[in-house]
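Escalation from tier 1.

The customer reports that the assembly of two entities below gives different structure tokens on two consecutive runs. Tier 1 could not reproduce it. I'm attaching the input and our single run for tier 2 to review.
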Amino acid sequence: MSAPTAPPAAAARQNRVSRTPMQWLVLGLCAVFAVVMLAPFLLLVLNAFKSGADYSSGGPVAWPKSFTLDAFRDYMSMVDFPRALWNSILISTVVAFAGTGLALISAYAIGIGRVKGSAVILAVLLLATMVPHEALIYPLFYGAQETGTFNTVWSVIIIFTVLQAAFGTYLLSSVMSTVPKELLDAAGIDGAGRWTILWKIILPVLRPTLSVLVVFFFIWTWNEFYIPVVLLSDASSQTVPIALSTLRGQHSIDITTLNAGSLLSLLPTLVFFLIFQRTLSHGVTAGSIK
Amino acid sequence: MTTLRKAGALLGVAALALATFGCGGGDDGGSGDGKTLRIVQYENPTSAQGQGWQKALEIFKQKHPDVEVKFEQTSFDAARQNAKITLSGNDVPDVVEFNKGNADGGQLAAQGLLEPLTEQVTKYGWDKKVTGAMSAFAKYSEDGYAGDGEWYGIPNIGEYVMFYYNKELFTKAGITTLPTTQAEFEAAMDKLIAAKIIPISSSAATSQGFNQMWVWYSLVSAQASRQQIDDFMFVRQPVDFKAAPWGDGTRKFQEWIDKGYVGDKLGGLSFEQATVNFLSGKAAMLIWNNGEFARIRKDAKFDWDYFTMPGANMTMGSSGHLWGVPAKASNKELAYEWIDTTLSPEVQNEIGKLGGLPLAGDASVITDPITKKFTERFNELVQADTLTFYPDYPVPGFLDFIQQHMQAMSNKNETADQYIDTLQKFYDDGKGK
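Tier 1 run:
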């Protein structure tokens, strides 16, 4: 989103006086677009601080008569949020780093090393990420039960480390195949072994891509619902999205509490994104200019 | 480079953790020592039933001080989606709450995942408390059809569908007496339209827009007999949807849409938005069940009351969700005692006082007049055996099918006769016997 706005802004700074009507138009459109993008989030914030009666009489869009923290209080009393937050952070962090690490190692073998049938291996890995989770759930459930990890966060950590690493391997191995062969040859002549090449040559080159993977894996794992909801039925191992889903009845919804809960659930990912957004935007464009 | 080292360290930790847990084996679930009771349910803890169960927990713990009770909260959707998987595992709860109907409870019973309760029902006398139509979805045949066979579930409460109405808007439109027949009801709605007030707040989004479906099925129920509903619901006799009550009810439904009784632009609205439209005074009535009773009491800024469909033979309504004991549960005796505790007079009356429509409560102990009247009306309907359940129970996938057609009819893309034709086909293909 920031890419298209950058050139007109830069041009304006150089030459403040002459902003052409076209540039004003683009700026205006960008502002409208930003508001439209933010609107659902703003609505969520607004309704999280409304009282139930205010919401019922005015609807979601109306400005409330007073702001209240009741919805947050209700949410905290109905759900063990700190516990769910800790579980989510633990699962997402471990998966993000372990998945990226595993992907790096396996991609090194496929992208740099020579493995017979590497294309087939990649296809299989890609397939694993494309199969709907519903199709995987029975084997995963029985697997978790046999290993004694059912109802513990470790079942979910293992599964998502593998699933995310499968995607990561596919991505990284194709990035690694673009690393110039001369670089590797030069390192080899200098006496670097395979291990040294991975840590000293490949890793620094791929760092931006790896950071993006860590961020993506974190957010994807954070938002996962289906597999965790099956494997983590116990309240003590629930994640944030599952805790949130317990608020929904069949024939009644407490909208303000749901909004408060959603806002609380969203904040950690938002904070995470803000901290890492520099790495993110760097990583996305990394390799585009060579 | 430091972040990398950290990453490496974390990787090591993770690997270690995997190794430990991999070798750990794990416990074999409940050991059946009669010392633990694990309950998994999905009722909102602030609802009448949820609070009643808190009381049941107190009573149970007093009676069994040496038993560790785990009372776990899950969601309706999660319980519904996962019941088959989790109940087939080793580590199953001792008591579960599950959804009634052939597609949910019926499947669990047919696959042998639930323990038949018939023996316990006689032993504890639960059939004295759960009677008539309220017990219909507690029993399933070997093939998983509701209506008769062994008992697999025990409901605690019931529910019924009503029209909540805004007294101030009724007065404004010049409606002085409440309608007692369908003709009077339509005349009242004509007056509301003349006063530029939307008569019924409704919704027809394919996801969560259930109000139109309830209007339609209420109109069908209004002309139906017990026999006709049971044939449809329990797939006993072939159903001719062109004939009464189906054909007439559906055509009446189209008439109501065309006359604007249910408002317009319903295709994107959910039941939550329909409720807000009623509470904000945009519409004079809301069709819904007791699920929003407590909220309307709390949030309505106007004088309100409610009535069931005027002049109707039968009314939409059913028993609540069911308690079941998984076939693999290890502490079944405690599970039966828990179910019995939730049907005890103390717990049932507590649910009743909070407006939760208990099946075995005593309405005379309720002091609040609105709640009392509301409960007495329910007891009347149960005693007369005129509740018609929800229309999506008989066939798997029926809810999505009905919702799509409710949306099409509300958008005036489909006529009553077109709907009846596809409904006939879907029902006959899907009923499976």
